Amino acid sequence: MVRRPSARQAELASRARAGIATMAGIIAVLYAIQVANMLTFGWLSLTFGIRPRDVTSLPDILTSPLVHDASSWNHLAANTLPLVVFGFLAFLAGLRQFLTAVALSWLASGVGVWLFGGSLFGHSVTVGASGVIFGLFGFLLVRGFFNRSWWQILLAVLLLLAYGSVLLGVLPTVGRGISWQAHLFGLAGGVIAALVMRPQRPRRAIS
Prior knowledge:
Blueprint: H1 7-39, H2 43-48, H3 74-91, H4 95-116, H5 130-147, H6 150-163, H7 180-196
Helix pairs in contact: 1-3, 3-5, 4-5, 4-7, 5-6, 5-7
């Protein structure tokens, strides 16, 4: 006799399929944009990257994670695997949680770069999805504690063992040409997303 999967297992399998399709679509878009960026010799980076403290560049907060360094494939290639892994795992929690984590990481990272990126006197343009990646990582690391979920905490420990070294990317000493501000504020956005999406427990009535 073949045992049918439970409703919970069926829902998880459905989310997994949707997560794979979603992340595949996102990666396809990023690589298509990279091709266009390289064909135009970095015009997309210069046009849609964040220029810190430039008021005209505020809308670029919404576009900069979609664009990567046009000088080679290394930037996008380095972001691809962690984006797929963290994005897929976040999607397993549900579309609403995934979108919230991405949105808050995206905005927090962009605002942080706009306010504090570059140098006070130099000119720089920041592009790349690493802020969102750090946000998804932060979301996955702390949500289990807010949700009081042992399996989510266990997953966080495994992710920390596998990818914990990337957290060094939030330090100002991470390296020249790398936006630690995007990493730090993206991570903060992910933690905020986990806090916002935590289960609301009923308050006890006072008699």
